[in-house]
């Protein structure tokens, strides 16, 4: 079964540094997402991406965040200047449509970001 | 008010027990609903969609009550491997999925 893959599995960075989290969505999917989950808290939506542009973003996704699909396969999340409160598990997801149907989102296994 | 609200639990049940989780959603425009399962420090995985007529998948039964804005998940004959956090998820229009905080289930031998 095709999978969403994320790298790295764990990233440790110092406050103020830039990080790029990488994702390879399932190849025939059209919608891409980033979610995050702070330890012990709920899964929170960050951004959705379709047709090479952001289709929706949450209030969490401020100017320090950006997303890019630099080629036909990768989907990246950049955090420009990390803060301690950015420490979380970041999940990439993709879907063939806007989340309707029997298998709305396929999640990657996540990148654990630790900001020190 | 939270968009999707769940009892955090934990629900501690013996193997073989039947357990039910409830979830309420605040946005009456929500159209689609799902139950996801999340193991500790892992990604959410789709367990099942929730249909208005109710649907069953093996030991799992999901129900939706649109009038009360209420969703339920019933697990029969609990297995040790069912121990996880169960996430109630709503989809509203063109928006991305909204997750509840999850209900933790611990099945004990």
| Radius of gyration of chain A, taken over Cα atoms and rounded to an integer in Å | 13 Å
Give me the strand/helix succession of chain A: EEEEEEEEEEE
Q: Classify the helix fraction of chain A into a percent range.
A: under 10%
Uncertain residue ranges of chain B: none
Rg of Cα set of chain B = 13 Å
Secondary-structure element pattern of chain B, one letter each? EEEEEEEEEEE
Largest interface: A-B, 25 and 22 residues
Instruction: Compute the number of helices of chain A.
Output: 0
Multimer state: heterodimer
The shape of chain B is globular
**Distance N to C terminus of chain B:** 37 Å
Envelope shape of chain A: globular
Mean pLDDT over the full residue set of chain A: 92
- What can be said about the biggest beta sheet of chain B? 6 strands, mixed
- The computed structural class of chain A is mainly beta
- Label the structural class of chain B: mainly beta
Q: Report the biggest beta sheet of chain A as strand number plus sense, adding barrel if it closes.
A: 7 strands, mixed
Structural commentary:
The complex is a heterodimer of chains A (116) and B (109). Chain A is mainly beta. Helix content of chain A is 0%, strand content 49%. Chain A has strands spanning 5-7, 10-13, 19-24, 31-37, 43-50, 53-57, 65-68, 75-79, 88-95, 106-107, 111-115. In chain A, the strands form 2 sheets. In chain A, strands 2, 4, 5, 6, 9, 10 and 11 form a 7-stranded mixed β-sheet that branches. In chain A, strand 7 and strand 8 (75-79) form a beta hairpin. Chain A is globular. With 109 residues, chain B is mainly beta. Chain B has strands at 4-6, 11-14, 19-25, 32-38, 45-50, 55-57, 60-65, 70-75, 84-91, 98-99, 103-108. In chain B, strands 2, 4, 5, 9, 10 and 11 form a 6-stranded mixed β-sheet that branches. A 5-stranded antiparallel β-sheet of chain B has the order 1-3-8-7-6, with no helix packed on it. In chain B, a hairpin with a 6-residue loop joins strand 4 (32-38) and strand 5 (45-50). The radius of gyration of chain B is 13 Å and the shape is globular. At the A-B interface, strand 5 of A face strand 4, strand 5 and strand 10 of B.
